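Contributing new complexes? Match this layout with NAP.
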Amino acid sequence: MINTLAIIGVGLIGGSLARDLRALGLVREIIGYGRSLGNLQLAVELGVIDRVAVNARDAVMGADLIVIAVPVGSIGAVLQEIAPAIGEAAVVTDVGSVKQSVIGAARSALGARFASFVPGHPIAGTENSGVGASLEGLFRGRRVILTPTPQTDTGAAAHVHGLWQAVGAQVISMDPLEHDRILAASSHLPHMVAYALMDMLVRMDEHREIFEYSAGGLHDTTRVAGSDGVMWRDIVLANREALLAVLRQYHDDVGEMIDAIERGDGQWLLETFQRARRGREMLTKP
Ligand code: NAP
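Output block (do not edit by hand):
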């Protein structure tokens, strides 16, 4: 049982976790802090949090679990602000989509308290943002990756592991470097492809006609281009190296596709499409 839970960043992920922990009766009181008052007031109206703190430091004072659910680029500043107010026995965790940069920021912000920080990343979400988009059951059957360091307190890690398990997630521990490399390919690259495609189309003079005559293909391929720009700018900058490696590989492969189309190489196209189709089957029916 968590006596007081502090959520910094009461949006899709922070709000969904709060909803689940409350529904399961695992928390007595939830205090929220964020950026815009409108979102926080909505969080109270929706019953996601019990009250709004005046600042991040006030939010964590007396909390036994602190969840940081702001965009990756803001996690370091939030940790720096709350560091002096974190209680002796409190556990701190985050949900950021990139882990090495967050761990580095936490190490310098928390100093001696770094051991009580458990880096985490739920592999669940939607392209929608804010507490209005938060859902009960968002993490059920999904994976949550924890990337504890050798300094991470084992009791703190076990506590966070147990919470995610309680909300129905399958919890996995991973090295942060490996996490960032895998997520660059599985999540960050597809977002770049969708953003680039949508941006190219919307800048075309006939974009209205293109959209009018679009079907499932364009909608399916670009769904994640509806994701929050600040969140994705932060993820890209925080995972630049790993993302650039797969983005360059993708760029080269698109170049090869252009060459094959230019020379009318039906064999190349067929082999590529059939290999991709088998890959897609593995993705959807593992
Ligand atoms: P979100 O719905 O936009 O929620 C983020 C919340 O943080 C918003 O309510 C925002 O306030 C607040 N916020 C932004 N900057 C802040 C700051 N400097 N100080 C305090 N509060 C701040 O985003 P989300 O999708 O929940 O993402 C939150 C974190 O989860 C990110 O680190 C992201 O990488 C990670 N994540 C996201 C997904 C996903 O699919 N969306 C999946 C896994 C992990 P406003 O309401 O005023 O904007």
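Reviewers usually confirm one structural detail per submission. For this one: The chain has a mean pLDDT of 97.
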